[in-house]
Amino acid sequence: MSGLDSGAAERRRQFAEEARSERPDLALLCLLLGAEAGPVGPAEVVPVTPGEPVPDPYGIDAAQIELDRLAGLLPYGSRSPAGWASALAELLGERCGFGGSSADYQRLDSSLLQQVLRRRRGLPILLSVVWIEVARRAGAPVYGVALPGHFVVGFGDREHPVLADPFAGGAPLTGQDAELLVTGATGAALEPSMMVPARPLEIVLRILNNIRAWAAARPERTDVALWAVELSLLLPSHPARLRYEHAQLLVQRGEFLRGAAEMEEYAAILAEIEPTTAENIRRKAHAARALLN
């Protein structure tokens, strides 16, 4: 992860520290992730006096303020889980226009919380993050539900949750609706384990996986693939194979020595359990070093 400027290195340090905290802050992690894509445009930041430096260039503070503002728009008072779901749908889905469409899957900014708050469009998981963070600030019993292929939110009793689909503007989901979503995505039946509330780090890793998939379909965007993998590696729990993916990206980007060294390190880990795979990776490391000649 060399080559980072001091600001980027500090954001990475903060991301790693937050990910390892006792209660990781989902919004902060998503905003630090979003900052990897670069500063928000000049028209998207708070206006300042000419000549003064632009504050909050990555929109982190502004996004937190917007989440607080949206939470403050919810009607005050206790309500049932169904009442919370209805209030969030009315505010975020109807009044504010948060939702998604198939076109949003083609945009990187659909996975960046700052941009989702600005555009009010995004992938199901990012729209769910908005719902979770706004509802949590208002005191709602809310959590994410990571159904295969489609992320939604739940309210109340986790054995019998009230489900809503932020991608569809907060449309309520019955158990049968959830079953159809899962069957459509996987061909399998809905399992009780699929309804377990998603933890913040699981949500962040799923977002990073989406970004990696977006970049994989665009070979010219190895820059995005690289930071998505590097952030994934900062999480306390991540697939070991990401180390090999990181090494491959380094080679693709011309960092042959670093990529080869990381391949060899990964091969050493695999040697005891998958010797054939380890040997294949060593050969690729050798080939990467040869590209310097």
UniProtKB/TrEMBL annotation:
Where does the record place the Protein SirB1 N-terminal domain?
A: 68-209
Q: Which Pfam families match?
A: TPR_9, Transglut_core2
Q: What domain of life does the UniProt record list for this protein's source?
A: Bacteria
InterPro entries found in the cross-reference section: SirB1_N
- Enumerate the transmembrane spans: none
Record's family? Belongs to the UPF0162 family.
Q: What is this protein called?
A: Protein SirB1 N-terminal domain-containing protein
Species of the source = Streptomyces globisporus
